[in-house]
Structure formats: C-alpha cells, structure tokens
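Hi F.,

I've been meaning to write this up properly since the lab meeting, where we talked about keeping a consistent format for the predictions we share between groups. The idea is simple: the sequence comes first, exactly as it goes in, then the structure tokens exactly as they come out, then a line or two of notes. No screenshots and no reformatting. I'm using this chain as the first example so we have something concrete to point to.
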Amino acid sequence: MSKRHAIVRRLPSVETLGSVNVICSDKTGTLTINHMTATKLWSFGDGTPKDVTKVHSENPNGATTQAVLRTANVVNNARLNTHTHAHINPASAAVLANTGGEELAAAKSRWAGQPTDVALLDLMDAFGEDDVRVRLGVRKHEIPFSSERKWMGVIFPGQNGGDDTAYIKGALERVIGRCDTYLTPTGGEVILDDKRRQEVESAAQKMAEEGLRVLSFASGPVKNATPRSTRSQASAPGPDGKTEAQANEEIYNGLCFAGLVGMADPPRKGVDRSIRRLMAGGVKVIMITGDADTTAVAIGKRLGMPINLNSALGSPVLRGDQLDHMSEAELAEAMGRVSIFARTSPEHKLKIIRALQSRGDVVAMTGDGVNDAPALKKADIGVSMGKLGTDVAKEAADMILTDDDFSTILSAIEEGKGIFYNIQNFLTFQLSTSVAALGLVMMSTLGGWKNPLNAMQILWINILMDGPPAQSLGVEPVDPALLTQPPRSRNARVLTPRLIRRVAQSGILILLGTLITYVSNLTADDLAAHVVSDRDTTLTFTQFVLFDMFNALTCRS
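Output, unedited:
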C-alpha cells in the first residue's frame, strides 16, 4: 500500500478499510489541487464580476479595485519565493520553507506561502500594483485566520499621529457584518444599507455558482486600537466581561467594504472517476468544506457527486450554523440525503462522525489540522494528509496519504477489500486440501486398504505443494469484480457458510478423484496381501498433486 501512496500506521485498519461505506473528505487539497488562481473581481460599480485572468493594462485601476488589491496585499503572509529570489534573508527563508509547497513552485509564482495568499499577490502583480507592506511598517496587531473565525485582520499604525488602519479579509458573511459603509468607484464612502448588502450577496452568489472560493475585503480607520495581551485566546474575561479574543475582534468594526475576489481551485485529476467507482462499490462520499454552500455544490457537480436539489426531498447541503442547532439524532436522520457540509469547522466533523456511526455506518474521515485530531481519532479510519498535515493529525490518524490525493483512498479501500478476499481464498485452498488428505487416509482405513500415501509424500504435499500456492493467493491483485461489491459488515466472519461449502465441495472432489484412481489400480493380489505397489502410490500421489494445483487455480479465479 505504501507504493500506492498510503501508509497504514495501524495494521488492524487494513481490515476495516474493506468495511468503509462512508468517506468524509475535505474539499481543498484533497478533492481539489489546492492551487488557487484569482479569476474574478467585483466592487461597487461593476454590474457583474469581471474577469481578471487577462491583464487590462490599458485601463487604469479604479479606487475600488485599488482598495481590494491593497487590502489583499496587506492582509497577507506570503513572501518572496526563496527559489527565485536568493537575496532574501535566512530568517525569512526558514519561514518560507515551512509555508511553501511543491504546487507553488510548480506554478512558478514569485511568491511563496499559503495558496490563497499567493493567489492574491499574483493578482496584485497582474494589475501592476506594488507590495506596500514594507512601507506601512510593522503590524500593530493581527488576528490570524482560523476555520472557526473565517476571517483575518491586521492593524497598521497611523502615519504622522493619525488613526490606525485596520484591514480584513475573509468569508462574506463575516466581513460585511463588520462594515458600515462601502467604497464607491470615485473613492467616496456611502452608508452600506440593506439594498447594497443584497447587491454584494448577489455578486458573491454568481461567483460561487462557478465554483469559485469568494473572499471579501474591507478596511478603515480605527480609534483606540490598543489590543489586549494575546497570550491566550481562552483567557478569563476582563472587567467588561469579554475575553481577550472577543475584545480584540471588536476593534475590527465600522469598516468600509471594498469588494470581492473569486478564486478557482480546480478538482484533482481523476477524482471524479474515483468517486464514481466508490459509489458503484456502495461507498458514499461526503464533502466537508469551509467554503460557501453554493461553491461546494458547484464543485460537487463537477466531481460527479449525487446532488439532488429537489427541495421536496430536503437540501443536500447543510451549513455549519445549521449543524449547531441540530441534535445528533436529527443529523443522523438527515444523512440519507446530505452529501455536502459547507461553512464547517473542525468541531462539526466530530458531530458528523457521531451521527454517521449512530446509523451503523463505517466512516473514513480526512483531516490535516491540529483541530482535526479528535475527529480523526473518533472515525473508524482516520486519514491524514502527508504533505499538508500537521504532526498532531498524523499521530491521530490510522492512515497517511503521502500525496494528499483523494484517489489514494480508493486504492486503500480496494486493498482492504482485496486482502479480506485473499484471506478467504487462502483458507479455502488450505482447508480443502487438508480435508481431502485427511479424508483419503480415513476412507482407505475404513475400506481396509493400505494407506496410499507415505509420510514423505504427505509432507511434500503440505510443505511444497500447498505452501507456495497458498502464499501466492494471499498476495493476489485485487479482482476488479470485487470492487463493485458493497462493503462487508465489520462483524462479517472469515469462515462464512459459503466458504465452508466451497471447502467441502473442493475437498470431496479431490478426495473422490484421488480415491477412484487409487482403488481402480489395486489388483486382487494387492487387496489380499494388504499391500500397495510403488506404481499405485505414485499414481495416487500424482493425481492428488494435479487436483491440488487445479484447486489453487479455482481459488484464484
């Protein structure tokens, strides 16, 4: 399995793989390639999102476009790529070594960092804008992005004693809630009323319907931007009853909305085929993502996931805020129709697993972050990413994908089914041969005949004729017909009634064929003297060996 990019950390997990009937997979980096490209940009004044994949150097950047690009530049942790900029200092190089990746190098970007950050700086380059972070100085405060918060913010000190400036980027519903005004194409600020908010949501919806990840941007002056100590995000409440995290987040309010950027993250090659094969084999695939539900549905359709949008049957998508208000029993009932979970956090994964397991499902769950560890431990098979996964996630997982590719999970499940099937074939061959050998000795004794096989011949059969074929049956390639069979029950026995019948049929056939050969070659003198000639023994031994080899071929087919 390691040759197929799946490292199994706990050997019993191999048996469980063949019983998996639900796979809960992250979208970004597992179902998609995790290489972002900014393709759309929208701000007030644009009727529809504009295509930014082509450089429009003949059109000067308007105030809103500049505001979006500047915020995307400032709220960004990507830096110059060390592979193309040797002059970067060693400290920065160490940071970039941890944030860069093979896909970024393959994209030949001059930036290195998280894919989203790199895509935004590439967009800035395409519009001919400069990196202003050095000129702005050291950040006064930063709130890092998290899957729970879904936004990131930074504050830079004001120039010449002026107000500090806050910049944020993140999910639309989180950013727009912190805005009171919006930026017009002429650079003015106007009150952001409900009508304008609907206009923003409509533009974001259009981008999401194309399968784009939509980020929103805002900035504005903030007064008294003196954040509390950030030693612990879970510290005790202060005199005002607010924790440090809550107080610091409230600084980022009253901002001016700038615009939206839509980023494409194409599906991985072959994932759609893998999903079809899994569904044909009775395995349901569930997508779990932090993106908007519309984006997730668009990507799901491109991957060939069964998404029924018939409202009479219930929604195939559940958002994180809906999960918060559902009990595990209600969620378990909804699992039959749901194939996508959007705007989720790592805590939601644990709730999803519990709901599935309460239905009797055997669940494989993917994850890469520290917060994913509880869900990976709870799942029947925890799958961590080898490239992007944290050490904590890898330690909690049962299996590690060294290529971070969803199709590798299919390969692992195939091996899980194949190993169990091969074990049954191994047992069928060994037991049927043993039944035939014991039966031959027993029938000869009951018939009053001399034992047709001597001790050396029996040892030869058991060690040389049974051993190598049995070992080869244990490592047979997976039968393609086996992949279309539904997952077996976790409590399924190896010695099934069907296997016992196969053992009995094969053993009796070998016994009768060998016994007939032996008895038909006995003469009256042999029977009277109760002896057996070397010729009779050799014929019987040869016949048994031939039956044994045909039995091995039968078990293999």
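Notes:
Residues 37-51+139-264 form a domain with the Calcium-transporting ATPase, cytoplasmic domain N fold (CATH 3.40.1110.10).
Residues 435 and 507 are 5 Å apart (CA to CA).

If this format works for you, I'll send the rest the same way.

G.
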